[in-house]
């Protein structure tokens, strides 16, 4: 029975040390990373840059959505502070941190239900 397996072992080639086969086996990993970068990572980085710019230029009258899902209108901002005063209902104002704002809907944008 052991003689049956020996010819198959001799028929195999001794591992070649060619660099072309090493590169070809590594190529699919590079391709998957490139696809992941262009489809997932890069658009997310661009969206983060855009949100940071919008938060920097936040002004009175802008509609915002916080990370908790609270929608409100900016009433007052302080450049030196990280806090923004937001009106979430008539005569109900709260202070929120700029970092908790997830979306900025400018005052020129139309709400979806109107």
Automatic annotation (TrEMBL):
Instruction: Name its cellular compartments.
Output: Cell membrane
Q: What's the chief localization of this chain?
A: membrane
Q: Which residues cross the membrane?
A: 20-40
The record's listing under InterPro entries reads: Preprotein_translocase_YajC
Picking any one GO biological process from the record gives: protein transport
- Cellular component GO terms, alphabetically? plasma membrane
How does the protein associate with the membrane? Single-pass membrane protein
Keywords for this protein: Cell membrane, Membrane, Protein transport, Translocation, Transmembrane, Transmembrane helix, Transport
Q: Which PANTHER family match?
A: SEC TRANSLOCON ACCESSORY COMPLEX SUBUNIT YAJC
* Subunit-level organization: Part of the SecDF-YidC-YajC translocase complex. The SecDF-YidC-YajC translocase forms a supercomplex with SecYEG, called the holo-translocon (HTL).
Family, per the entry?
Belongs to the YajC family.
Q: What is the recorded function of this protein according to its Swiss-Prot or TrEMBL entry?
A: The SecYEG-SecDF-YajC-YidC holo-translocon (HTL) protein secretase/insertase is a supercomplex required for protein secretion, insertion of proteins into membranes, and assembly of membrane protein complexes. While the SecYEG complex is essential for assembly of a number of proteins and complexes, the SecDF-YajC-YidC subcomplex facilitates these functions.
Question: Would you tell me the protein name for this molecule?
Answer: Sec translocon accessory complex subunit YajC
Origin species, per record, is Acetobacter syzygii
């Amino acid at each position: 029975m052991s003689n049956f397996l020996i010819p198959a072992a001799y028929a195999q080639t001794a591992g070649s040390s060619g660099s072309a086969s090493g590169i070809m086996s590594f190529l699919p990993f590079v391709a998957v990373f490139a696809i992941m970068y262009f489809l997932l990572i890069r658009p997310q980085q661009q969206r983060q840059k855009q949100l940071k710019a919008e938060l920097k230029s936040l002004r009175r009258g802008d509609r915002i959505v916080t990370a908790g899902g609270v929608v409100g209108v900016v009433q007052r901002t302080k450049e030196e502070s990280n806090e923004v005063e937001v009106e979430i209902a008539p005569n109900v104002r709260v202070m929120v941190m700029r970092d908790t704002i997830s979306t900025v809907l400018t005052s020129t944008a139309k709400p979806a239900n109107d």
